[in-house]
Design goal:
about 575 residues, alpha+beta, DNA Primase, Chain A, five-stranded antiparallel sheet, 26 helices, about 55% helix, binds zinc ion
């Protein structure tokens, strides 16, 4: 948050969101706003808008919205302080040396620094366990068996978490408070409140963030313990979907060679890197997340997916292809041939066939469409039904090919390979394209429209009418006039802000709201400007008061009908009279 008087606040005051966004998105003036194609979701017609006066942006398609900082954070996949720095640089605002921060920020930074330090110590603890203990010896034998010698163990910082249950805990406890230990995810608490090591009797792989700091561990069971793989939980310094294993060391090679090899697990990444291919990263698990793809996309837009050949790996490959295509990646897929009757993951393949064979396979790896056709050909193509299933499997990917000529070429190949009449396939393709077009048109579901005009007007006045905002907020609050409205939560947040006498910042208020409510607020703020008067506000308030009375009246009426002979009938009737009178008075 840009606190008043802070550097971030100063940058926000001086920065022009139109100019900053304009560096990423081609913007066109449209009425009071600027519009363009949303950089956060694929679209052909603009639903992304920037408001030069309010200094906010909003996408009516995917619902992303915020101020100049949230835009840069989303675009650059960076944290708030970094976004402030980037915006300041773009706008030529001198950046002060980092010094005094807010107390909470300082505390959070200290906590993060302590957690990083703790992970560094845990890492040397695990490494030492592997090197020096009897248990570690068994682990070393296992690694040796997997082809990992001492040199590799050292190079990749592989360690061992002993079986005792509290060895690491005892080591760290001397220095760190219990709360921080639990926060780190290295230590867990059982039901009785006792602390114990999260990782026991496991090989440890250090997971580093982009700048090479160990922030988590991925651990493989040494014996038959379940789960086979156990990772660090989400912590203040680690979010699984933001980190790719080995990225810190692979990024230079990825940038230089302009492609990356994407594998599933640490052992695969290590095997591939040891084969001399340093531009490899692992998603650490089968599901690749969008932030991981965006991280990778900062270094290259070309990737070879080489997941495990089992069913889970295949499904993950297909899902990854989809996600990667959405982010405009050029995707190739390496499906390694089985060795004997064993399905080969990269680790096994390199151990059995050698590095050169792997490099050759990598070079020959086909574009994703070929891989998908090969998958489709495994389906039963002897029946019409089977062919239809194969076609339905391929169609979504085929549609994602942006280039028309290329798409047409692939359509021909598919029809040949699957023996489907080409006209039939082309008809299916253009039907799908037409459906997609109509989908795009109807897709932006505008949540703001569910708010009634009165609500929308009042929200705008609360935001903009400096002269009577406070009075308006008080009136709304006193009668609880906004309760039960579609926009109830938006009003609640606006009223708090208005009564605090702070400037009304859409982004900051939006940050307090759930996604749907925030979208509603932003959509309303992007509606054409209209001068609001106190008279208009009063008539809106009146309408809300009437609404409440009518509601209560309906309720009383229902009770009267339901409980004709009850003891409270008299009271109900009196109340009804009162309400009717008030309703006439309000009129
Ligand atoms: Zn969007």
């Amino acid at each position: 948050m840009a606190e008043a008087g802070s550097f971030a606040d100063k940058v926000k005051q001086q920065a022009d969101i139109v100019r900053v966004v304009g560096e990423y998105v081609r913007l066109k003036k449209s009425g009071q706003n600027f519009t363009g194609l949303c950089p956060f979701h694929g679209e052909k017609t603009p639903s992304f808008a920037v408001h030069p006066v309010k200094q906010i942006f909003h996408c009516f398609g995917c619902g992303k919205g915020g101020d100049v900082f949230s835009f840069v954070m989303e675009m650059e996949k960076c944290q708030f302080p970094e976004a402030v720095r980037i915006v300041a640089e773009k706008c030529g605002i001198a950046i002060p040396r980092p010094k005094e921060r807010s107390p909470e920020e300082r505390k959070e930074n200290q906590q993060r620094a302590a957690l990083v330090e703790m992970h560094r110590e845990a890492q040397s603890f695990f490494v030492k366990q592997l090197e020096t203990t009897a248990e570690g010896k068994a682990a070393r034998a296992y690694l040796e068996d997997r082809g990992l010698n001492a040199e590799a163990i050292a190079r990749f910082g592989i360690g061992y978490a002993p079986s005792g249950g509290d060895a690491l805990l005892r080591y760290l406890k001397q220095k760190y408070a219990e709360k921080l230990l639990v926060e780190s995810g290295l230590v867990s608490r059982d039901q009785s409140g006792r602390l114990f090591d999260r990782f026991r009797r496991r090989i440890t792989f250090a997971i580093a963030n982009e700048s090479g700091k160990v922030v988590a561990f991925g651990c493989r069971a040494l014996g038959d313990d379940l789960p086979k793989y156990l990772n660090s939980p989400e912590t203040p310094i680690y979010s699984k979907s933001n980190v790719l294993y080995y990225m810190d060391r692979a990024k230079d090679a990825i940038r230089r060679q302009d492609f990356a090899v994407l594998v599933e697990g640490y052992m695969d990444a290590i095997a591939v890197a040891r084969a001399g291919i340093n531009n490899v990263v692992a998603s650490c698990g089968t599901s690749l997340a969008e932030p991981q793809i965006k991280l990778l996309g900062r270094f290259t837009k070309r990737v070879i997916v080489n997941y495990d050949p089992d069913a889970a790996g295949q499904a993950a490959t297909e899902r990854s292809i989809s996600l990667l295509l959405e982010q405009d990646f050029e995707v190739r897929v390496l499906a390694l041939p089985a060795i004997g009757d064993k399905k080969a993951d990269p680790d096994l393949f390199i151990r059995e066939k050698g590095a050169d064979a792997y490099i050759k396979a990598l070079k020959d790896s086909p574009p994703y469409v070929d891989y998908l056709i090969a998958r489709a050909r495994q389906m039963d193509l002897t029946t019409g039904e089977g062919k239809l299933r194969a076609l339905n499997f391929l169609m979504p990917y085929l549609q994602k090919i942006p280039n028309r000529l290329l798409r047409s070429e692939w359509a021909t190949r598919i029809s040949q390979q699957l023996r489907i009449d080409e006209p039939v396939l082309r008809a299916a393709l253009s039907k799908a394209a037409a459906e997609r077009r109509s989908e795009v048109k109807t897709q932006p579901e505008l949540v703001g429209k569910s708010a009634k005009p009165i609500e929308r007007r009042l929200i705008r006045m609360l935001m903009e009418a400096e002269g009577f905002r406070r009075e308006l907020a008080q009136q709304l609050q006193q009668g609880g006039l906004y309760r039960g409205l579609e926009t109830e939560k938006v009003f609640a947040a606006l009223i708090v802000a208005a009564l605090s006498d702070q400037p009304m910042q859409a982004t900051e208020i939006g940050a307090l709201l759930e996604d749907r409510d925030r979208r509603m607020l932003f959509e309303i703020l992007f509606e054409p400007a209209q001068e609001g008067t106190w008279e208009e506000a009063e008539s809106c308030l009146e309408a809300l008061r009437r609404r409440l009375i009518e509601q209560e009246l309906a309720e009383v009426q229902r009770s009267i009908e339901a409980n004709a002979a009850g003891p409270s009938l008299r009271e109900l009737l009196t109340r009804k009279q009162e309400l009717m009178k008030r309703l006439t008075a309000e009129r």
